[in-house]
Amino acid sequence: VAAGKNGATTVASTMIIAALAGIKVFATGGIGGVHRGAEHTFDISADLQELANTNVTVVCAGAKSILDLGLT
């Protein structure tokens, strides 16, 4: 932002930043979750852990459709 460039953050990192800034609620399109094939790769989004541990409310449409929604 300070450099005038584009950037992006994950929901997990946005939650941490929001908590540090005193922001209690933010909105996003979708959260991460358990990826397909995670029983072999253990590819699980940090968003899930952060949702469990950070006191920030996330408003979203749900988990991203590319994920294994049942496992998520």
- The helix content, as a percent range, equals 25-40%
Total count of helical runs of at least 4 residues: 3
What is Rg?
Answer: 13 Å
Percent of residues in beta strands?
Answer: 5-15%
Can you tell me the residue ranges where pLDDT is under 50 for at least 5 consecutive residues?
none
Keywords: Glycosidase, Hydrolase, Lyase, Manganese, Metal-binding
Pfam family, one: Indigoidine_A
InterPro entries: Indigdn_synthA-like, PsuG
GO cellular component, one term: cytoplasm
Overview of the structural elements:
The protein has 72 residues and is α+β, with helices and mostly antiparallel strands. The chain has one domain (1-72). The protein has 3 helices and 2 strands. It has helices at residues 11-21, 38-41, 46-53, and strands at 25-27, 57-59. Strands 1-2 form a two-stranded parallel ribbon. Helix 1 packs parallel to helix 3 (46-53). The protein is globular and about 40 Å long. The mean pLDDT is 94. Pfam families: Indigoidine_A. One of its GO terms (cellular component) is cytoplasm. This is Tat pathway signal sequence protein.
